[in-house]
Amino acid sequence: MPRNESIKKLRDQLVRRRDALHRALEGDLSLLRELHQEKTGDILDAAADSVQDELNSQLIEAESRELTAINDAITRFDQGCYGDCEGCGKPIPLTRLRAIPYATDCIDCRRKAENRNGSGSSVLWNRVFDSAEVDPV
């Protein structure tokens, strides 16, 4: 399948995911409102409610970040620059876009950015046990 057709299918996938996230966020927010209106029984119930509120809040935050990334990707599609790496300008491989449809950079540029920001690691985790010594018996 040509790249343009694959890109159009990815846009359709992004739109479906955006719509699903909108519905999920509406449900999450209404659930939070309902929970805040209910009275709690004792201190243990209040603590459990507090933990649940925090988890729901984090979920809403993650969904909101993904929704923003999806909306940005749809905007890039409408502007004709979807699928191009913002770092080097080369086309992002379709396999990366299929895995992360709202990706803005290719693997090489992502790695460079992570290394610049200090979030990259010099440890090759897939090789970490190759040179490990065996514990003495």
UniProtKB/TrEMBL annotation:
InterPro entries: DnaK_N, Znf_C4-type_bac, Znf_DskA_TraR, Znf_DskA_TraR_CS
Keyword flag Ion transport: no
Entry keyword set: Metal-binding, Zinc, Zinc-finger
GO molecular function terms attached to this record: zinc ion binding
Family annotation (Pfam families): zf-dskA_traR (PF01258)
Signal peptide per UniProt: none
Annotated Zinc finger DksA/TraR C4-type domain residues: 82-114
Zinc finger (dksA C4-type): 85-109
Domain of life: Bacteria
PANTHER family, per the entry: GENERAL STRESS PROTEIN 16O, RNA POLYMERASE-BINDING TRANSCRIPTION FACTOR DKSA-RELATED
Protein name per UniProt: General stress protein 16O
Native species: Rubripirellula lacrimiformis
